[in-house]
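Field reference: sequence -> structure
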Amino acid sequence: MAKGKQKVYEEPAQPYIVVTDPFRMPRSSRQQRHFDETAAWLNHVFGSQDAVDTIYTMRTRTEIIVAVSEDVDIAPALGAHRWSMFMPHMNPADGDKVSCIFRYNYKTQGDPLSRQWIAMYPETPVNITFVSPYPEPASRANAHPRSTIWKVPAATSAPRDPYDLLQLCTTDYYR
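Structure field:
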């Protein structure tokens, strides 16, 4: 049986990112305050109070998809963000946690809402103290997401395309 052509979606001007093990977001029982705290962290990462437009979540997934404002450059934020590096006062149990930020492949995956992701919007600005200036994320070769759905092949060199972190940490879902 022949396979059909894969649908290619038109990429919007607004960038989308995938965040594995998002900061201050539990794996289940997510509430509005968790989205507000994660949005506050991402706003700090991008250096803008209005960087996060929408956070997409799914009950069966530990990662989130984030729609970022058009004027935000996502390239400097791509990579591994160790919580203990950007939080001055961290619970020792959370000291080894890492959130990884990747570019969402909109061309092959399309609008997250069409794939049963639920849109959540940051409502209340949250005041969380982060290290300033924000530390640079770990290199892509050192980005080892903890999520079990990600495959991490051995990386001998950085990918040629600075946006394509999915060469190093991919799932079949995001290819």
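Note: Residues 141-175 have pLDDT under 50 and may be disordered.
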